[in-house]
Design a protein that fits this description.
Elements: E1 2-3, H1 9-32, H2 37-58, E2 61-62, H3 66-84, H4 97-126, H5 137-199, H6 203-218, H7 226-230, E3 233-240, E4 243-250, H8 254-257, E5 260-261, H9 266-274, E6 278-281, E7 300-308, E8 311-320, H10 328-400, H11 402-430, H12 433-438, H13 440-455, E9 458-463, H14 465-470, H15 473-494, E10 498-507, E11 510-517, H16 524-532, H17 539-550, E12 554-559, E13 565-572, H18 575-582
Parallel strand pairs: 9-10
Antiparallel strand pairs: 1-2, 3-4, 3-8, 4-5, 6-7, 7-8, 10-11, 11-13, 12-13
């Protein structure tokens, strides 16, 4: 006995025809009054046989020589029943139909004619045993003729049925093969997607790969469905600021690639609000997406939000003119692609942020180098040049005016002391060792003392020690340089008599750093315009804003001509506080 994965239709045909034939024989015997156990036991045996064959077919089992055994059993019991019922003179004259039907299903025309001929010989032989026939020739000829005609008729029908079953089976196999091909293509697409997306950190390549893999996964069919796949429109829309821009697209026009969307209406708003993929119709009439020319010919669309936690990167959109295009299988594939794309986009975004952060740090270091060069040029370099001139003057006055030469040397000494203080101050600001050893409060106090000593600038420092201790060492260093930059700006440009530095807690999780002065102030709007153009007059603001970004903080500057300046830096102490701070904007 062998087990098969799918049922044999021919077996079920034979079983059904056998039940019909047995029922007909029982009815004919009942009408003739011949239902006696002595002559009907072959039918009972066939009934039990057919019950067993039904169970075997239901279990998808098959015996060795299954068809031959089935036909042989039908032939044997039909022959026995034929003789027990009186042969040609009995009510079972048409019992040859049972093996003929079985042969027609299993062995087609040739097998059916063989069975018909064998039963005709059986009928011919029964003539010599049957003494009740008054005219033996006519019933015998008619019976044999009917048997042969039935054999030929059902043999032809068996051929037709076998051909139909073969065509149906081939069609079923082709359909299974097509489904296996589609499934293998989809699995291959998922594998390639995962491999491609995890192998690159290039933002553009991630977006292009996601759309390409989406197309392959949605259209893995053979060439017959290529026209349908060619109508697929897809795009990745990414937030840049508060606007959605096209990161990558397929079948978008040049004008469509430049479209910006707010994401505040229609399908995009629903996707971002609910955070779930959405299948919709009438995409061409969407209040926002309807602006994209390539989508106006589309009927159905599937939009997947690209988000991870609270971070929303944008959306992935697929659209097609066919309203029934997005089947459940295709939607499942798009969900897999969308989730993989979110991870890849997140990795690419993090990598891009690291690159930008690296570039920004390089710019900060470059600006610090330029600032040091400017400070050296404006301070110690000029002082050293002045000392050289005065020493030269004193040397020439030594013989003619010793008193004047002595006074010049005194001035040179004072200038040397002042230059020495400036250099020590610059070295202190470049690397304040006290910051590492004693903390931010002590470093700011030391900076105030050096500014008072070097430039006679009054700086008042008020630092909450508990708040300073909560700050990481890296943040303390950035805060120190923010204070140093703001204080130097006030000293150089504001002509301030006093500068106040305060650090305390604004609210739980957020510190407030404030640098205020009583100088001449400036026009903030004009300075913001200069900042956007990166002009030399705005370098101080550039440094302040870039250093504020290093601590994930928020900078505000309040100033007016003649009213001094107040610089405020809000510093989050945790990720939750940072999210709360920036959502207050």
């Amino acid at each position: 006995m062998r087990t098969y994965d799918s049922p044999y239709i021919a077996d079920w045909f034979v079983i059904s025809l056998r039940w019909i034939t047995l029922a007909g024989l029982l009815v004919s015997l009942g009408l003739d009054g011949g239902l006696r156990l002595a002559v009907t036991w072959p039918l009972i045996a066939l009934i039990f046989w057919n019950v067993g064959m039904t169970y075997i077919a239901a279990a998808n089992w098959r015996m060795v020589w299954h068809r031959q055994i089935g036909l042989g059993v039908d032939m044997v019991f039909a022959s026995i029943f034929f003789f027990l019922q009186g042969g040609l003179a009995g009510p079972a004259l048409w019992v040859p139909i049972l093996p003929i039907l079985t042969a027609a299903v299993y062995f087609e025309f040739v097998g059916t004619m063989i069975v018909a001929v064998l039963f005709s010989l059986l009928q011919y032989g029964s003539r010599w045993l049957d003494t009740r026939l008054l005219m033996p020739d006519m019933p015998l000829v008619a019976s044999i003729g009917i048997t042969l005609v039935l054999g030929a008729l059902f043999g032809i029908l068996g051929d037709k049925m076998a051909e139909h079953l073969r065509v149906a089976r081939e069609k079923r196999l082709r359909e299974q093969e097509r489904k296996w091909h589609i499934e293998s293509e989809r699995l291959r697409a998922i594998y390639e997607l995962t491999s491609t997306l995890t192998a690159t950190l290039s933002y553009k390549r991630v977006l292009d790969s996601a759309l390409d893999m989406g197309y392959t996964a949605l259209n893995p069919e053979p060439d017959g469905e290529s026209d349908q796949g060619a109508q697929l429109v897809s795009a990745v829309l990414l937030f840049k600021g508060d606007k959605l821009r096209v990161g990558s697209a397929r079948r978008f026009t040049n004008a469509d690639m430049k479209v910006t969307l707010p994401g505040a209406e229609g399908l995009l708003k629903k996707v971002f609000d609910e955070g779930e993929p959405t299948l919709s119709s009438g995409i061409g009439y969407d209040p926002e997406l309807g602006r994209i020319v390539s989508l106006r010919s589309c009927t159905s669309s599937y939009c997947f939000p690209l988000r991870s936690g609270f971070n929303v990167y944008g959306a992935m959109l697929f659209a097609h003119p066919d309203a029934q295009y997005f089947t459940q299988d295709r939607i499942s594939m798009l969900e897999i692609i969308g989730r993989q794309s979110v991870v890849a986009i997140q990795n690419a975004r993090l990598y891009q942020d690291l690159v930008e952060e690296k570039n920004r740090m390089m710019e900060v270091h470059e600006e610090a180098r330029k600032k040091l060069a400017r400070d050296l040029h404006d301070g110690p370099t000029q002082s050293v040049a002045a000392m050289a001139m005065r020493i030269n003057l004193a040397r020439r006055m030594t013989d003619k005016n010793p008193q004047g030469a002595s006074e010049e040397l005194v001035k040179v000494e004072e200038l040397a002391h002042r230059t020495s203080k400036e250099i020590r101050h610059m070295l202190f600001t470049l690397r304040p060792l006290i910051l590492e050893s004693q903390g931010l409060g002590a470093a700011l106090q030391a900076m105030a003392e050096k500014m008072r000593e070097t430039y006679s600038q009054n700086v008042i420092v008020n630092v909450d020690a508990r708040m300073a201790d909560k700050l990481e060492m890296g943040k303390q260093g950035v805060i120190f340089y923010i204070v140093e930059e703001a204080a130097n700006n006030a000293r150089k440009h504001a002509n301030a008599a006093n500068i106040w530095v305060r650090l305390g807690q604004l609210e739980p999780g957020i510190a407030l750093l404030e640098i205020a002065d009583d100088g001449i102030g400036f026009d903030v709007d004009a300075m913001n315009k200069a900042y956007d153009q990166r002009s030399n007059s705005s370098l101080g603001m550039v440094n302040l804003r870039e250093r504020t970004e290093l601590v994930n903080g928020r900078l505000t500057i309040d100033s007016a001509l003649g009213k001094g300046t107040r610089v405020q830096v809000y510093i989050p102490l945790s990720e939750e506080a940072a999210d709360r701070l920036h959502h207050k904007k």
